[in-house]
Amino acid sequence: MLTTKDNTRLLATAGKGNESAQAMQSKKIEDQQKSEKTKLIKAQIKCEQFEIKSQESDLTSTEKKEMDNNQKVRDQMLDKYSAYKEMNSEEMIKTYEDEFKESFTGNISAIEYDKEPGKKSLEELYEEKFPGRKDNDNEAKNKLPLMIQLLFGGNESNEDAMQNQKSLYFESSEELTQFLQDAAAEGIKMRIMDENGKVMAYSNGDGKLYHADNGLKFETGDSLRSSDMFLDEFIAQQTEQAQQNALPTMKP
Predict the structure, then answer these.
(1) Judging by DSSP bridges, how do beta strands 146-153 and 108-114 pair with one another?
(2) Of 7, 119, 191, 251, which has the most beta carbons under 10 Å away?
């Protein structure tokens, strides 16, 4: 038979377990809301882009279909989160960031690169190619399709890299790809990840941009595509290949 003291201890332990379960459930709900609101904002950004383009030119049948799909996603999410109904994408992003106390990264891919002395930085190259564009980030968020998170690596710690992250904005995937090829031609070492953290492309300082899935050099007209490797897996593969290449060739 348990004593009162033992009972008290048992109940206290059960209480802590319940609190932990409640915390996990709360985290699960918050993660789901983040995912849904991210989906909403991404759809809103896309709709705004198509609306702007439709005012300037006729949309192709493919673009009209994509716009319809994004409108359906947006409307479905707005039914659930009605507080967003009167907001544009810029206002949605701010509301998201205020609610979750973190930067909106829903459609942001990342470029991690080595900031090397004597070489042009990615930010400097961006300012050179798109003068004034990043001076109005709010307008850029609302009008440009691609937001790329820029992470410094190599000479900075991970903590410093996260603190110094910046966003670059591109009008199209073609513009982004050309910028990356230009950056590679400058000898900048970098790794480009998709929004799920999978490596898409890289440069190793030899002036060329490579596909991450097969190691082939980018050719004219090539598009970015995801490999099945996260950054740590990709780095491990590159390190292993470099070590193998460094081994002396055995002559018969």
Answers:
(1) parallel
(2) 191
Q: Give the pLDDT of residue 6.
A: 46
Of the candidates 39, 47, 49, 28, the residue with the CA atom closest to the CA atom of residue 80: 39
Q: Are 76 and 176 in contact (CB under 8 A)?
A: no
β-pairing verdict for 166-170 and 189-193: unpaired
pLDDT at residue number 144: 64
Residues with Cβ within 8 Å of 100's Cβ and at least 6 positions away in sequence, in order, are: 30, 34
Show the tokens assigned to 98. Answer: 């205020």
So what's the pLDDT on residue 206? 95
Question: How many angstroms separate the CA atoms of 123 and 16, rounded?
Answer: 49
Q: What is the pLDDT of residues 192-236, one digit of tens each?
A: 987 767 889 999 999 999 999 999 999 988 988 888 888 888 989
pLDDT in tens, 48-95: 777 877 877 787 887 788 889 889 999 999 999 999 999 988 788 889
Taking 80 as the threshold, does the pLDDT of residue 100 lie above it? yes
Q: At what angle do helices 122-129 and 173-185 cross, to 10 degrees?
A: 120
Q: How many CB atoms lie within 10 A of CB 189?
A: 19
